[in-house]
Amino acid sequence: MIVSIESLKALREITGAGMMDCKKALMEAGGDQEAARVLIVEWGLATSAKRADRETREGRVGLAVASAVAGPPSAAGLAALACETDFVARNGYYVEAANAIASRVLEGRLSSPDSGVEGLVSEIALRMKENIVLKGIGFIEADAHECLDTYLHGEGSIAAALRIRAEDPACFRDPAIRALLHDLSLQVAARAPRFIGQSDVPPSLLDEKRHEFREELAADPKFAEKGEALLANVVEGKLRKFISTQCLLEQSFIKDEALGVGAFLATIQEQAGTALRVTGFLRLAIGEE
Q1: What is the pTM for the complete model shown?
Q2: Which residues, given as ranges, of the chain have pLDDT below 70?
Q3: Does residue 157 sit in the same domain as residue 66?
Q4: Partners of 134 in the beta sheet?
Q5: Are residues 170 and 258 part of one domain?
Q6: I want to staple 249 with a disulfide (CB 3.0 to 4.6 A). Which of 113, 125, 157, 262 is the partner?
């Protein structure tokens, strides 16, 4: 079978594969472009398996938002796509792929990757010839009483989305209030909280941390002769410090370390003239465990 140069170029443009691979795929597929593309993706998956043990500390977080007319975003999709090198992370095709995955997450309201997302990851891995790993995805949306704010750090190393509820959602029309709420998204991006407030921390996790802190004290000679009351106080102190780093409302505010995030939210609430409550957030990052 004779394969035209035009077909080869078209398949190479779609897949990023070498000319010989494109020719082989087209010949096996009888000249069918889509069948040839599928073959190349399958071959690429086999190659990707060989790269799977390579470290992926670079990449980009894609962010896609759906906005109400003249208002803040109503929903957001995030996707963390990791690769081996900064060179690939800056590649235009790679950036488009991360954003395309985020858009797929948004459109499908996905909480886990579907076949479309997996296909996009496979295709960019084939094109870039690196170990490409989807580190995570996330979808979040706001209802009529909520405001959703998003933040993308730098060239996409971190993305965050924060949702807040108002008793009177008319406050969200005020640009000054939305600017203050954006600071909370920056807080999520910078300090990586796991929970909104202390009441959201699972009791099982608190018990696990108490046990961990007890073991630390048992291994420390300084506490060998100390009484139970003192040890209990030290453990609870460590637990409070853990909560202050893991809960958004308990953290120190990034723009004023003397101010807690909960106190900062109270100042926004006072200015907005209505009760405000954080109801959810998402954060995805590249290069973190």
Answers
A1: 0.80
A2: 1, 15-18, 44-54, 68-71, 289
A3: yes
A4: 81
A5: yes
A6: 262
- pLDDT of amino acid 44: 67
Whether residues 127 and 26 fall in one domain: no
Q: Is 223 found in the same domain as 164? A: no
Cα gap 244→222, rounded to integer Å: 25
Residues 157 and 287 sit within 8 Å (Cβ to Cβ): yes
CATH of the domain at 277: 3.30.479.20
Secondary structure (3-state) at 78: strand
Q: Which domain range does residue 255 map to?
A: 58-196+248-285
Burial of 229 (C-beta count, 10 Å sphere; 0-12/13-18/19+): exposed
Say yes or no: 226 and 128 in one domain: no
78-136 pLDDT per residue, tens: 999 999 999 999 999 999 999 999 999 999 999 999 988 988 888 888 787 788 889 99
Could you say which DSSP state residue 183 is in?
H
Within the chain, where are the H helices?
Answer: 5-15, 19-28, 33-51, 86-89, 92-108, 115-128, 175-191, 203-218, 228-246, 261-272
- Are 97 and 47 contained in the same domain? no
Q: What pLDDT shows up at residue 55?
A: 73
Structure tokens at 202: 């699972």
DSSP state letter for 171: G
| Total tally of structural domains belonging to the chain | 3
DSSP 118: H
120 shares its domain with 163: yes
Which residues, in sequence order, are CB contacts of 134 under 8 Å at separation 6+? 79, 80, 81, 82, 101, 113, 117, 118, 121
Say what the pLDDT of residue 46 is: 47
Assess whether 142 and 274 both reside in one domain.
yes
* Contact call for residues 151 and 186 (beta carbons, < 8 A): yes
Neighbours of 4 (CB within 10 A): 10
